[in-house]
């Protein structure tokens, strides 16, 4: 691990200013992803700004009946929150399918959204990886690509976004709230938050330098039945090969998003509209334009089957 300096910020504004003011600085929250990456020298921050003391650790009701989740709320607290379990069950189910109890106790809402890909070559500093070292190439494209992306990928990077929580947030139409170093704030729809790689795979999301996530806001509850299925190589403590988050209504309509397939949670409006023509038609619409490798083309069939299972569980 490389040497770095460290400070604990007292307010969100101070934290944003501190990161913007020091070249190579990063926020640290639970540290469950960043510290692993620092030990491997995949991430080499020169300065860490710890945000654990800045507040933002509550889940509150909004005026329109939704929920405002502080960026420092732990994954455990969020999954167990009474309103989340009752009104946003897909979120609880997605969170508890991830990591382990100990990790979820430390992991935060903001940090979870920003966790980095699990592409094995990203973690191996001896291998070419455009995401870790722009312009170095992509060892995965002609290498071991079984767990990697089938859609939304580019010639520069075929990695997936690995998280579970964000797949549920995508179905719930969450908004990510931020504060910038100049004190201004902005709201980013979850569907616009994670970037597709294009020719800049090193940029996972649309945050600017020093921009801090403060809250994630959920609109008022949707009703319906909430389901999350995660298919993986081990029964626990593993990332999704394919996952599906869905909210199924009594009239048979449904919202659904996939994890494990793309560089961001993958939700396609036209696929939801195509459900009236059957699961196969809906899955085909969601996966239109897919470019799998020989090793991961099984994910296309797996995605359709997982969607079918989720819809049955949702009562459709
Ligand atoms: C063994 C293992 C298994 C795992 N399995 C799963 C799994 O199955 N599913 C799953 O979804 N996840 C899984 N995870 C990932 C885990 O969920 C994340 O590591 C965790 O959610 C990250 O949160 P954190 O608070 O620890 O982030 P940190 O590690 O502190 O930070 C992560 C990144 O976010 C930035 N950051 C943190 N907070 C903010 C903020 N408020 N604003 C702006 N930037 C910020 C940091 O600078 C850093 O770049 C696993 C992790 C491990 C180690
Ligand atoms: S798929 Fe992306 S993360 Fe993996 S080696 Fe290629 S560039 Fe790196």
From TrEMBL:
<keyword id="KW-0285">Flavoprotein</keyword>
<dbReference type="InterPro" id="IPR016167">
    <property type="entry name" value="FAD-bd_PCMH_sub1"/>
</dbReference>
<feature type="domain" description="FAD-binding PCMH-type">
    <location>
        <begin position="1"/>
        <end position="223"/>
    </location>
</feature>
<dbReference type="GO" id="GO:0016491">
    <property type="term" value="F:oxidoreductase activity"/>
</dbReference>
<dbReference type="GO" id="GO:0071949">
    <property type="term" value="F:FAD binding"/>
</dbReference>
<dbReference type="InterPro" id="IPR051312">
    <property type="entry name" value="Diverse_Substr_Oxidored"/>
</dbReference>
<dbReference type="InterPro" id="IPR016166">
    <property type="entry name" value="FAD-bd_PCMH"/>
</dbReference>
<dbReference type="InterPro" id="IPR036683">
    <property type="entry name" value="CO_DH_flav_C_dom_sf"/>
</dbReference>
<dbReference type="Pfam" id="PF00941">
    <property type="entry name" value="FAD_binding_5"/>
</dbReference>
<dbReference type="InterPro" id="IPR016169">
    <property type="entry name" value="FAD-bd_PCMH_sub2"/>
</dbReference>
<protein>
    <submittedName>
        <fullName>Xanthine dehydrogenase family protein subunit M</fullName>
    </submittedName>
</protein>
<dbReference type="Pfam" id="PF03450">
    <property type="entry name" value="CO_deh_flav_C"/>
</dbReference>
<keyword id="KW-0274">FAD</keyword>
<dbReference type="InterPro" id="IPR036318">
    <property type="entry name" value="FAD-bd_PCMH-like_sf"/>
</dbReference>
<dbReference type="InterPro" id="IPR005107">
    <property type="entry name" value="CO_DH_flav_C"/>
</dbReference>
<dbReference type="InterPro" id="IPR002346">
    <property type="entry name" value="Mopterin_DH_FAD-bd"/>
</dbReference>
């Amino acid at each position: 691990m490389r040497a770095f300096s460290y400070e604990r910020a007292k307010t969100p504004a101070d934290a944003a200013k501190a990161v913007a003011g020091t070249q190579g600085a990063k926020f640290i929250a639970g540290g469950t992803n960043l510290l692993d990456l620092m030990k491997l020298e995949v991430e080499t921050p020169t300065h860490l700004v710890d945000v654990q003391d800045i507040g933002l650790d509550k889940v509150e009701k909004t005026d329109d009946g939704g929920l405002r989740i502080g960026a420092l709320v732990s994954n455990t607290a969020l999954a167990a929150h009474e309103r989340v379990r009752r009104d946003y069950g897909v979120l609880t189910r997605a969170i508890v399918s991830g990591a382990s109890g100990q990790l979820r106790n430390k992991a935060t809402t903001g940090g979870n959204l920003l966790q980095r890909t699990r592409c094995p070559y990203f973690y191996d500093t001896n291998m070419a990886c455009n995401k870790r070292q722009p312009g170095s190439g992509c060892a995965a494209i002609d290498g071991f690509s079984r767990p990697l992306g089938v859609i939304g990928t580019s010639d520069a990077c075929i990695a997936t976004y690995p998280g579970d929580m964000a797949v549920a947030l995508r179905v719930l139409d969450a908004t990510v709230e931020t504060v910038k170093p100049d004190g201004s704030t902005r709201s980013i729809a979850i569907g616009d938050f994670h970037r597709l790689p294009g020719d800049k795979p090193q940029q996972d999301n649309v945050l600017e330098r020093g921009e801090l996530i403060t809250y994630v806001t959920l609109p008022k509850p949707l009703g319906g039945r909430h389901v999350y299925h995660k298919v993986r190589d081990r029964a626990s403590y593993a990332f999704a090969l394919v996952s599906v988050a869905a909210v199924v209504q009594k009239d048979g309509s449904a919202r659904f998003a996939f994890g494990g397939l793309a560089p961001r949670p993958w939700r396609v409006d036209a696929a939801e509209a195509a459900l009236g023509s059957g699961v196969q038609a809906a899955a085909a619409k969601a996966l239109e334009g897919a470019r799998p490798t020989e090793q991961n083309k099984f994910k296309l069939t797996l995605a359709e089957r997982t969607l079918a299972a989720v819809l049955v569980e949702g009562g459709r």
